[in-house]
Amino acid sequence: MASDGKRDIIPKEPEATFIRRAYQLVAENLCTVQAVYRRIRASGLKCSISNFRRMLRNPVYRGMIVVPAFENDTAFLAKGLHEPLVSDSLFADVQKVLGRVRLKNIHLDNSPNDMLLFRGFLNCPQCGRRLTGSASKGKKGKYYYYYHCNGRCRFRTRADAINAHFMLEIGKLNVVSEYIEIYRDILRHIRRDIYDSSTSSEKSISAAIDKLIERIVRAKVLLIKGDIDDEDYKLLKKDSEAKIHLLGTDLQRSEIASRTKSDSLKKATFQLSQFGKTFTALSTSERRTLMEILLSPSITLNEGLSINDMINADMGLLFDLDSLSQSRLPERCITYTESMDQAFYEQTQSRIQETLLTRKGQAESRQTALVLDFLIIFAKMFSKNHS
Predict the structure, then answer these.
(1) Dihedral angle, C-alpha 286, 288, 294, 296, nearest 10 °
(2) Residue 6, by phi and psi: left (phi above 0), alpha (psi -120 to 50) or beta?
């Protein structure tokens, strides 16, 4: 209820931030609605793709409400009392994008087919159109997969050779050590239940043991003063020592658990340092989610294509690929992730910015956000698969 007693709609965080970001990404029209959905869902928004699409068309987010039809009156929109999450112009831009049959720079097919992993990421070397992919049945009934162009040039090439080459190139990626430390802290923050090796329980156990020892010492003083007899002292000492023994066992178990968590965190962090190997172990849909950020938005297929030609110039900073072209590439879908504590998010952004300034002498906000989003999504994927 509002202060005047009327029913009000109050935005809920972090969902409100996810929704705003979803509208912004769809309005930019740089990738499919499906790709935006995957990115926002990875950030923490829980809804189906059908509900996500309905959300993008719901006028309530621009401050309007639907007044239902009544008797002879038709339903109509009216301005609500609640604060809009998005502006009228942003809402209108999203409706324009949703109304188009084909979106700019879309992936023609985002279905998770491992044999066509790079479908929608490659451009035709003859006409520049986005390549799609499909299977062709051979004479002996075996299926062969091809990346091909739907343009007049009818270009096509075997997918297995392209996949092998790209995976070999991605396997060469090594993350800069400074980012490994940042990733470790992100991983520990996201999955504190698994990796947090804080010693709060150990400290409380140690404090309890100290109090029991102090109790024995005080009892000894009282015995010397004659305030208690020897039998009382022995009973108190025996009781305290029994409790100390039990707490000591708990302390030992807690220390073992902390070491186990620490070892698990080291192993999890190692996955990023071995990015190429880890990438091959991910599911097809997870690989494609990372590729949305990792790869250049414009890869023209040609012989001798190297990792430097494949990686988004901004993401190259994460892997220290100095020979990447410095020309600005079209910005891909960037997720503003609020599934973590906001203060921690901003602190981590600052750490990445400082790293970029130290290593490269400059740091743009979009580069910082892109690197951070990549690390967060990778951490979420890994912790989900190994929780």
Answers:
(1) 180
(2) beta
The neighbouring-strand residues paired with 157 are 147
Residue ranges of E strands in the chain: 64-67, 76-79, 122-123, 132-137, 143-148, 156-158, 299-300
**Cα–Cα distance, 99 to 152 (Å, whole number):** 27
Q: Give the residue from 131, 95, 96 showing the smallest Cα distance to 116.
A: 131
- For residues 311 and 139, the answer to whether their CB atoms sit within 8 Å is no
Token digits of residue 364:
């743009």
Task: State pLDDT tens for residues 7-18.
Answer: 556 667 788 888
Model confidence pLDDT, tens digit, residues 229-247 = 889 889 999 999 999 888 8
Per DSSP, 167 falls in state H
**Mean pLDDT of all residues in 111-130:** 82
- DSSP classification of residue 84: P
Burial of residue 205 (CB within 10 Å: 0-12, 13-18, 19+) is buried
Round the average pLDDT of the chain to a whole number and report it.
Answer: 78
Q: Are 120 and 108 in contact (CB under 8 A)?
A: yes
Query: CA–CA separation, 281 vs 13, rounded Å?
Result: 34
* DSSP character string of 232-295: HHHHHHHHHHHHHHHHHHHHHHHHHHHHHHHHHHHHHHHHHHTHHHHHHHS-HHHHHHHHHHHB
Whole-angstrom distance, CA of residue 259 vs CA of residue 290: 31
In which region does residue 361 sit, left (phi positive, over 0), alpha (psi from -120 to 50) or beta (all else)?
A: left
- State the Cα torsion 242-245-249-254 to the nearest 10°: 100
Of 6-10, 255-259, 341-345, give the range with the top mean pLDDT: 341-345
The reply to whether the predicted model has a pTM over 0.70 is no
pLDDT of 174 strictly over 90: no
Alpha-carbon dihedral angle through residues 335, 339, 345, 349, given to the nearest 10 degrees? -20
What is the per-residue pLDDT for 331?
44
Nearest-angstrom CA–CA distance, 308 and 296: 10
Question: Whose CA is closest to 23, among 76, 97, 77?
Answer: 97
DSSP3 helix / strand / coil % (the chain, rounded to 5) = 55, 10, 35
Length of the chain: 387
CA 199, CA 59: separation in Å to the nearest integer? 49
